[in-house]
Amino acid sequence: MATEHADNAQHAQHALTPSAYIEHHLSFNAHPLNEGAGFWTLHVDTFVMSVALGLIVMGLIWLVARKATAGVPTKGQAFVELVFGFIDDQVKNIFHGNRHSFIAPTALTVFLWVFAMNSMDFLPVDWVAGIVSFFGGEHAKWRAVPTSDINTTFALALTVWILMIFFAIKVKGFGGWIHELFCAPFGTKIWVWPANFMFNLIEYVSKPLSHSLRLFGNMYAGEVIFLLLGMWAATGLTGTIAGAILGAGWSIFHILIVALQAFIFMMLTVVYLAMAHEGH
Amino acid sequence: MNINFTLIAQAIAFAVLIWFTVKFVWPPLLKAIETRQKEIADGLAAAQEGRSALEVAAKKSEVTLAEAKQKASEIIAQAEKRGSQIVEEAKGNAKVEGDRILAGAKAEIDQEVNRAKEGLRAQVSALAIAGAEKILRKEIDANAHSEMLSKLAAEL
After folding, report:
1. Which residues from B are below 8 Å from A85, CB to CB?
2. Residue B107: inside a domain
3. Which ipTM value was assigned to this complex?
């Protein structure tokens, strides 16, 4: 891994400046959908990677779940049940309702999908760049980690946000939801309505922002550190050794971050959806 | 770091994945796990039941055994009692029978003795009369004194 880093980085340094190297690695394979582009742009790399990972992860689980027996489980089923039990336990502690109809499966999806997407950070950045430039030419861009794209994390957070409002209205009724916007948490007196509403507004805005930016920030920072180590490896023998050692260390530490961030994202999803079910 | 259509595409992908999991992944896993949990719970309950049934049966067999032992000793005691009773009865019967036979024999002996005495008395009186006759041939009237002699003989 280290030599690859070095080779590719040296190659990059011959051709490009360090800032160009980083810029190359941090730009998306953006595909404009119509003339003006702007909003109507699709990050092909983010989309393809995330959908492929989603299909692989949930597909594998589905293959096991399809043949799940109540008898002695196979090793695959035992592993899937381990994950199932872990998620189910977490949801059970937070949400006290019929969790099996929606919230627990959603938590499973979020955890596994985000975990898989985060795990793409373990792929050596320059290997990805090497493979892509082999197929798409030297200037082809490809970012392998979908969760280091703000669009992905914000899409997940916004979907959860919409579900949150949906469940709030479903459980309390539209009137009940509006009532709660103005009458919680400070009370029902008319002179605290503005304060209540401001409070709820801030809460509704801050939830998706903190939810998405936490994951994005962690994954983006992780990627940048790998890039910096890759650049250090390009500076010579000392840099190569130091970069390799630190890169290995950061990879190991990153295993924790990848799992932890997926777990936190899943827990926040469950907490937000559970809060939507509870009246103040 | 710009928001664009990717956001919408990702949201749709996320929604589809959630739908897929809710519909196809979670239910079979839940069913398998819940069925197994129920089976294990049932098995444990059955084992518990079997254990308590075994305990009850052991207790019952102990009681039955004790009862049987008691009954057996009762029967033995009864048999012993009855045996000694029979022996006692036999002894009593034998004694009574013996006494009866003894009494009969004694009575017969007495009778024989009396009869012999009668005979002897008669003979003694006859002898006495004959002797007296011989001595007092002339003086004694046999007819006049026979009544007195037979009285005398009866007194002997």
Report:
1. 33
2. yes
3. 0.85
